[in-house]
Amino acid sequence: MSDKPNEFGITHLRHVDLAVPDYATQRAFYTDTWGLREVGSDGDLSYLAAEGSPEQYVIRLRRAADKRLDLIAFGAVDRAAVDALAQRLGGAGVPLVTEPGDLATAGGGYGFRFFDIDGRTVEISADVEVRTHRKVEEGESIPVRISHAVVNSTDIARTRSFYERHLGFRLSDTLHKDDMGDLMHFMRCNDRHHSLAIAHGPHTSVHHVSFEMRGIDEYLRGTGRVMRAGIKKVWGPGRHLAGNNTFSYFLDPSGNTMEYTTELERLDEDAWHPHIYDVDDPLTQDQWGTADPMSELIAKESFNDVDRGVFVAPPV
Predict the structure, then answer these.
(1) Tens of pLDDT, residues 161-180
(2) Same structural domain for residues 295 and 166?
(3) 71 in Cβ contact with 313 (< 8 Å)
(4) Is 3 contained in some domain?
(5) Number of domains the chain is built from
(6) 1 has a pLDDT exceeding 90
(7) Together in a domain, 14 and 104
(8) Nearest CA to 294 among 119, 177, 179, 205?
(9) What is the pLDDT of residues 234-243, one digit of tens each?
(10) How far is it, in rounded angstroms, from Cα 262 to Cα 144?
(11) Backbone Cα Rg of the chain
(12) Before 237, cis peptide (omega within 30)?
């Protein structure tokens, strides 16, 4: 990967793993409608890749009785960084789910898992086999790569502090509302504006997962294709101020919010200073003015269901 590692050797977001009760419906959505490609399956697991990404997969689906987030996976520069980070976390009292070792999932590699401060499972890995991929061509309205993941937390200051202290993430920008306080922290582990964001919500859950498209035309074509398929659109199309990226949000069949985006800002680490953006300013939410104004109803769509996987390690 071209992303420069942060101070603890973390390079980028690899994949987000979801457990779903409507497994067959979800597989069909992500392959037939969303534009990912199933590159492997193993019993009740489906590995879904983005055509332009060297990652083995960007979404993993697992058939389960309960909907939950299984884990969020980040890459590390090498095995030494994996070992050092596991030792650092363990020494700080962070609960390790697994010790560093060979991974049994698609692409192999070397990694470990732990619970973050909110109880979600996080995986750090290195030496994962690179997948043969290709350039996404002009007009192809399919995801090039996974862009970022956003999670809900009841205490976003605490969650932000955890990722800063233990994983070396840095704050890029904050969304704020005078009568509610900070609503979202955008966090980076490389020069992309955010690989992770932490949103204020009523419970721990997935807020949304975002996928990078080739360009504006492909982003709009993809948005239109998903709309024509009858998938519920939550918000968009528009362009955010924080990150300067485009957005179109949809609900997958399990009620997880998924986003198409493009042109996420890449930052000059030496010159960047975090901004605090007022969400009551219409330009903060949508510079173009093409999306519906943000409302409580729109916001609630991304609160998602209470995550049943909090402090419960996934079985695989």
Answers:
(1) 999 999 999 999 999 999 99
(2) yes
(3) no
(4) no
(5) 2
(6) no
(7) yes
(8) 177
(9) 999 999 999 9
(10) 10
(11) 18
(12) yes
Give the residue ranges of DSSP H helices in the chain.
Answer: 23-28, 79-91, 156-167, 216-228, 282-285, 296-301
Using the 3D structure, point to which of 126, 158, 189 is the last residue of a domain: 126
Same domain, 90 and 151: no
Mark which of 59, 92, 126 sits at the end of a domain: 126
If asked whether residues 18 and 56 sit together in one domain, one would say yes
Range of the domain at 34: 10-126
Give pLDDT tens digits for 179-192.
Answer: 999 999 999 999 99
Identify whether 134 is part of a domain. no
- Phi, psi at 211, each rounded to 5°: -125, 130
Does residue 314 fall inside a structural domain?
A: no
Written as one letter, the residue type at 146 is I
What pLDDT is stored for residue 2 in this prediction?
A: 54
- pTM attached to this predicted model: 0.97
- 21 preceded by a cis bond (ω within 30 of 0): no
Report whether pLDDT(269) > 90: no
Residue with tokens 């019993």: 43
Asked whether residue 199 falls in the same domain as residue 240, the answer is: yes
What is the helix, strand, coil percentage profile of the chain, to 5?
20, 35, 45
Average pLDDT (109-136) is 97
Residue 8 phi/psi, 5-degree rounding, is -105, 10
Is the Cα torsion angle 206, 4, 2, 141 positive or negative in sign?
positive
Q: Which residues pair with 73 in a beta bridge?
A: 15, 123
Q: What is the mean pLDDT of residues 88-114?
A: 97
Q: Indicate whether 248 and 152 sit together in one domain.
A: yes
Q: Which amino acid type is present at position 129?
A: E
Is the predicted pLDDT of residue 199 greater than 70, yes or no? yes
Distance CA 144, CA 190 (A): 18
Coil, helix or strand for 312? coil
What are the tens digits of pLDDT across the range 23-73? 999 999 999 999 999 999 988 999 999 999 999 999 999 999 999 999 999
pLDDT > 70: percent of the chain: 99
Query: In CATH, what number is assigned to the domain containing residue 78?
Result: 3.10.180.10
Residue 307 lies in a domain: no
